[in-house]
Specification:
The protein is built from 7 helices and 3 strands; from the N terminus they run ααααβββααα. It is mostly helical. A hairpin with a 4-residue loop joins strand 1 and strand 2.
């Protein structure tokens, strides 16, 4: 890595075939090794371009591209951590209580987040977020990787709604993909992320 490469592709926390049958090995290979890797490469390249940009040149186009690619990198890094082979654990008492307060029940939250992914207009994500000002959980769409986010809200759980995340296996049935995703959720990891948020120790070191 050169001096100016700020971002690196994280290793998957499991083999590429570990999430089958929910997510095929081929999807994982392409998703991680091509798409996520592409965001990392672009983020490093754009960072270098901006570093070298003369002070009298407009940086806005490069800044928009950097936002897209860094956001894509961070969301994918979190996405891999939201899943485990066969799923893992269940919502902690703290997370379960917050879900009940915010949505009425776990099933309601899951249905709402699944629908958020299904109804994406184009490419994007569905996310369960901790909103620190109201100290509550919310569900939101994230268009592309960076648009329509609630400023300051921290994603706890994300579902990738881009076609590259599911199309080879689920074709046009994005709703089927969003429903199948729940079979591999790592609730222990999601619960820990909420705990970190509640105790103001949110992890920020994804590189």
């Amino acid at each position: 890595m050169s001096t100016h490469e700020m971002y690196s592709l994280p290793d998957l926390p499991y083999p590429t075939d570990a999430l089958e049958p929910t997510i095929s090995k081929r999807i994982m290979e392409l998703h991680h090794g091509t798409h996520h890797a592409g965001y990392v490469k672009a983020a490093n390249s754009l960072t270098e371009e901006l570093r070298k940009l003369p002070a009298d040149e407009d940086p806005s186009a490069l800044e928009r591209e950097l936002s897209f690619n860094v956001s894509g990198h961070r969301l994918h890094s979190l996405f891999w951590e939201c899943m485990a082979p066969g799923g893992n654990g269940s919502p902690s008492p703290e997370l379960a209580s917050r879900i009940d307060e915010s949505f009425g029940s776990l099933d309601t939250m899951k249905a709402r987040l699944s629908m958020t992914v299904e109804k994406l207009a184009g490419s994007g994500w569905g996310a369960l977020l901790w909103e620190p000002t109201g100290r509550t959980l919310i569900v939101a769409q994230i268009h592309d990787h960076q648009h329509d986010q609630v400023f300051g809200a921290v994603p706890l759980l994300v579902i990738d709604g881009w076609e590259h995340a599911y199309y080879l296996q689920y074709e046009a049935a994005r709703a089927k993909w969003a429903s199948a995703f729940w079979d591999v959720v790592d609730w222990d990891a999601v619960s820990k992320r909420l705990y970190d948020c509640m105790h103001e120790s949110v992890l920020t070191d994804i590189s």
